[in-house]
Design a protein that fits this description.
The chain is mainly alpha-helical. It is about 75% helix and about 0% strand. The chain folds into two domains: about 100 residues, Serine Threonine Protein Phosphatase 5, Tetratricopeptide repeat (Alpha Horseshoe); about 90 residues, Serine Threonine Protein Phosphatase 5, Tetratricopeptide repeat. The chain is built from eleven helices and no strands. The radius of gyration is 33 Å and the shape is elongated.
């Protein structure tokens, strides 16, 4: 008898097991199906939320452009999108735009709070450096020069590959000029001129550097020393 059981094909053994454990097998298959459906629904829902968040943000942004730019109430509209879609990329961008709108209104404390919130909630966002620039700009606008210098310098030192670094260097140079740190300011203006040649800041930085050189000639690049002409060797005749 045992030899007959051992000789049964694998498919027959599986069927025999299924017949003996029909209830457990049906329940197990049902559980797997339910889990698969739940996983599919979650992924689908996340996709739908991303789409809805993007549409909501586009609607608010279009309203701002239609009104000729940011206006009072823009920040609230962006914050509503951020609150409704907290885990979406559009919600994150809405938070950043809310900070920008508050900054434009001159509400620097409120703007800084939103930029700091972005930094705390979206550490992995590709827009993190923009939020850090926003924080620096807020304290700069409030006349807190020492704090602004620290914020700009931290951005330059730790996010060197980001697009906003040129803006941070330009602002930092301006603050250095105010503190009479002219060599540091001149060096930063030259860096911005080199790295943002085709941007808005590059030419402006070049003019600022030239102005400093006119006022303080010691900052101007030293002319290259002329090469000493080689003296031909002559062989003495014996």
């Amino acid at each position: 008898m045992e030899s007959n059981v051992a000789a049964l094909p694998l498919s027959h053994k599986a069927w025999a097991w299924f017949e003996a454990n029909r209830k457990q097998a049906v329940l197990g298959a049902g559980a797997v199906l339910i889990i698969a459906l739940i996983a599919w629904f979650v992924v689908w829902q996340q996709g739908e939320k991303q789409i809805a968040a993007g549409e909501a943000l586009s609607s608010v942004s279009a309203g701002q452009f239609g009104a000729g730019g940011s206006h009072p109430g823009a920040a609230d509209a962006y914050l509503k999108v951020a609150a409704a879609y907290p885990n979406s990329s559009a919600g994150a961008r809405a938070l950043l735009l809310a900070g920008g709108a508050l900054y434009a209104e001159g509400k620097y404390d409120d703007a800084r709070a939103q930029f700091q919130r972005f930094v705390q909630e979206h550490r992995d966002s590709p827009f993190l450096s923009q939020a850090l620039l926003g924080i620096a700009a807020c304290v700069d606008a409030q006349g807190k020069s020492a704090e602004a210098i620290t914020a700009y310098k931290d951005l330059v030192d730790h996010h060197s590959g980001e697009v906003v670094v040129s803006q941070a260097k330009f602002a930092l140079a301006r603050l250095y000029v105010a503190q009479n740190k002219l060599e540091q300011a001149h060096s930063l203006y030259e860096e911005v001129e080199r790295t943002d040649t085709y941007g808005v800041l590059g030419p402006e930085a070049g003019m600022r550097a030239a102005e400093l050189e006119l006022k303080f000639p010691n900052l101007a690049p030293k002319p290259a020393a002329a090469a000493t002409p080689a003296v031909p060797l002559t062989l003495e005749k014996k």
